[in-house]
Amino acid sequence: MTMQIETTASAAPLDDAALAEILANPGFGNHFTDHMFRIEWTPDAGWHGARVEPYGPLSLDPAAAVLHYAQEVFEGMKAYRHADGSIWSFRPEENAARMARSSRRLALPELSVADFVEAVDALVRVDQRWVPDASESEKSLYLRPFMFASEAFLGVRPAQHVTFMVIASPAGAYFKGGVKPVSLWLTEEYTRAGRGGMGAAKTGGNYASSLIAQQEAMGQGCDQVVFLDATEGRYVEELGGMNLYFVYRDGHIVTPETGTILEGITRASIIELAGKAGHRVEERRFSIEEWKDGVASGDIAEIFACGTAAVVTPVGELKWDGGSLASPGDGSVAALLRQQLVDIQFGRAEDAFGWMHRIV
Fold it and tell me: By its UniProt entry, which PANTHER family does this protein fall under (predicted)?
């Protein structure tokens, strides 16, 4: 469909002085823009009622299906202000396509790629003053599209009333004072997803199930948790919120194959950038033994992780019950790929891949 979007301006937008204070130190997920986007779906009417409206609390029936059966999906993306004042998003059609895949897996209706992109664009255009200045180091406007079962019904079936929304929050640089290596805890008790499960869908249940393992990691003094496969408990899958890469001494790179892990958009972009830089990239099963043996033998020269928030970060150490392993290398491959990607996103380098989408 082609959306007709109604806009109701906020009667009490944040004043400029207060906004400037927030943008000076936004943190992550702490502050939200003046407006939000909303559209609803029913079997009879399809998607309808598209609007940008003042940001505020939702009114949900206690029987709303999402509260009982977790039928919801979401996306994470950013808007970047370039030096000329224009505002861009990064590969939004890929976020839209992934949300459609997630929606199918959760038995939710699909929003078309065009309508997803227009919904995000509409909110950013209305709240463009919330996009941080380009001169500010890696600050951006984080965008959170999400869809949930809003029908008030306790029967176990796909919801007949669904709501799709977009909210936005200014975000500071993930690493204050420069990129820092992350420490990882290998959980041997918890798994994130199994074959036929929801691992490849971006849905809250996956993150909820990871929290106890993340809590375990933090209790061990680590930043993130590493999950192994649910079948054999041998193969590296992903971190709680990032994908992994292993750089070998001969220059080729291995990253765990998808299927039970999230198909990260930053992950896919890094694969393309690495290929252009001359690295052969393999997507395949990668065992924890290969990790440990490769570091011990010197075959693995560098390890790094990537995700929307951190972009790319080197891995500093892997810890597990009874042992630990320092990561090799100086992080030079990760640093180069990170800089190339960030420069494209902020308009400081040519977008040879056609990844950037202009909003304003």
Answer: BRANCHED-CHAIN-AMINO-ACID AMINOTRANSFERASE, SUBGROUP IIII AMINOTRANSFERASE
**How many C-beta neighbours within 10 Å does residue 348 have?**
12
Please tell me the distance from the alpha carbon of residue 144 to that of residue 79, in angstroms, as a whole number.
Answer: 11
The model's pLDDT over 306-316, given as tens digits with 9 standing for 90+, comes to 998 889 999 99
CATH of the domain at 223: 3.20.10.10
pLDDT reported for residue 2: 72
How many angstroms separate the CA atoms of 86 and 88, rounded? 7
267: three-class secondary structure by DSSP: helix
* DSSP characters over 207-249: HHHHHHHHHHHHHTT-SEEEEEPTTTS-BEEEESS-EEEEEET
pLDDT in the model for residue 158 = 97
Task: Please give the model's pTM, rounded to 2 decimal places.
Answer: 0.95
113's tokens: 């790629």
pLDDT digits over 140-175, tens only? 999 999 999 999 999 999 999 999 999 999 999 876
Contacts of 292 (CB under 8 A, 6+ apart): 325
- Residue 68, pLDDT > 60, answer yes
Domain that holds residue 335: 182-344
- 199-214: b or e for each residue (b if 16 or more CB lie within 10 Å)? bbbbbbbbeebbeebb
Nearest CA to 171 out of 58, 310, 37, 306 is that of 310
Question: Do both 210 and 302 map to the same domain?
Answer: yes
pLDDT(135) > 90: no
State CA 25 to chain mean position distance. 21
